[in-house]
Specification:
The chain is of the alpha+beta class. It has helices at about 5, 15-35, 40-50, 55-65, 70-85, 95-100, 105-115, 120, 125-140, 140-150, 155-160, 185-190; strands at about 160-165, 195, 200-205, 210, 215-230, 235-245, 245-250, 260-265, 275-280, 285-295, 295-305, 310-315, 325-335, 335-340, 345-350, 360-365, 375-390. The protein has two domains: about 5-30 and about 160-390, Jelly Rolls; about 40-150. It starts with a helix and ends with a strand. The mean pLDDT is about 95.
């Protein structure tokens, strides 16, 4: 049975949930990009130097420096004394050397530097430039954001998972490397599509898959076609159908044991059965991550062996979940299955948990007894993502 919050209609908005998820992933990417940036590397190098004891000693020495305590002052005093003692125009070598030095750019620059006020003198140094650049970067939005984010690190849960499968339907056509458009059993045994005994629409080999606005549509419509149907007593029987429908599956390309399986899907209102489901190499186990049928939304699980499989069925009023996009999720761990809609828990299963790899499937079918009104009808898929724990 669905959780009480779903029976009461307490489900977060899809746009809000998706925006929050997308923003968190974008923030993590921005965080990692800046973490590896030259700017942050430079800031940390500046911080290390500016905060060092060696830098503090250099700064102190610059601020406390006095011209009268310098070697330049000593040489100037020595030169003046020698000049006072000088008789005649003939200058000794020492006087000439001191005179050349006192007229040099080096002496003039150093004297000017040492006779400045301490703060003005410091402002002309490389140390001041580094300290100023460090303080400017320290107050920058990027650095503040980075260290604030690093302290909180809201990505712990996101960092645990690795994206193993993604489909956004951006190309406007079906990627045949990823997707097959018929049941695996028919493909392996007959190289043909087929439908089940209670289907009155036939699954075409991709003809009922449409694309628009970077979304895939599994269309069910009125169309005459001949195809195979499975009959328990007769096996596969060739028959005529008045309706067609669509299916996409990763049976040949992708399977995974455990993880998070999620998709943003819009179920069409009406009588068409639409499903986001998972299965193994055989018919069981079978998980309906989300199944919309006869005005109800289901989260189902079938497992076991033989002709009497065990099952766990949960449902809620489907009117709320028709004709709008929702994010349907299955979280699968060794001891638990958790169904979610827009990140809110819908159902939990702790018995008979599957222990083999499973593929993902999306299908629409018109079942026996269902009304044909409302056709054509389309199940729409915006995106699909599958994650696996990194460790």
């Amino acid at each position: 049975m669905a959780s009480l919050s779903f029976l009461l209609g307490m489900v977060p908005g899809t746009e809000k949930v998706e925006t929050a998820d997308d923003q968190l992933r974008a923030d993590l990417q921005s965080y990692r990009d800046y973490e590896n940036s030259d700017e942050l590397k430079h800031y940390l190098e500046l911080q290390k130097e500016v905060k060092s004891s060696n830098f503090a000693l250099r700064k102190k020495k610059i601020l406390k420096a006095k011209y009268k305590a310098s070697e330049e002052f000593r040489k100037e005093v020595r030169y003046n004394k020698l000049m006072k003692r000088l008789k005649g125009d003939d200058k000794p070598d020492e006087v000439k050397q001191l005179e050349d030095y006192l007229h040099s750019e080096e002496f003039i620059r150093q004297k000017q530097f040492l006779t400045m006020k301490p703060t003005e003198r410091y402002e002309t140094t490389e140390e001041y430039q580094k300290e100023t650049e460090y303080q400017t970067l320290k107050k920058s939005e990027k650095v503040i954001w980075y260290f604030k984010t690093k302290k909180k690190f809201p990505f712990k849960e996101l960092e645990r998972w690795k994206l193993t499968f993604e489909e956004n339907f951006n190309t406007g056509q079906l990627d045949r490397e990823k997707w097959m458009t018929r049941y695996l059993w028919g493909d392996k045994t007959m190289d043909s599509s087929f439908v089940l005994e209670d289907d009155k629409s036939f699954i075409t080999d991709g003809d009922n898959i449409e694309f628009y606005d970077k979304k895939a549509r599994l269309v069910t419509k009125a169309a005459k076609i001949e195809g195979l149907a499975w009959r328990a007593e007769q096996g596969f029987v060739l028959q005529n159908f008045d309706y067609t429908s669509g299916l996409i599956s990763t049976s040949k390309s992708f399977r995974q044991k455990y993880g998070v399986f999620k998709a943003k899907v819009k179920m069409a209102g009406g009588s068409v059965a639409q499903s986001f489901w998972m299965n193994s190499e055989t018919m069981l186990p079978h998980v309906d991550v989300a199944r919309f049928e006869s005005g109800k939304l289901y989260a189902n699980y079938f497992w076991g062996k033989g002709g009497s499989p065990q099952k766990s069925l949960s449902k809620t009023n489907g009117a709320k979940y028709a004709d709008e996009y929702f994010i349907f999720t299955l979280e699968w761990s060794p001891n638990k299955l958790v169904w979610k809609i827009n990140n809110k828990v819908f159902k939990t299963q702790t018995s008979g948990i599957p222990q083999e790899e499973m593929c993902i499937n999306f299908s629409s079918n018109l079942k026996e007894g269902a009304s044909e009104s409302g056709l054509p009808s389309a199940m729409e898929i915006d995106w699909i993502r599958v994650y696996k724990l990194k460790n």
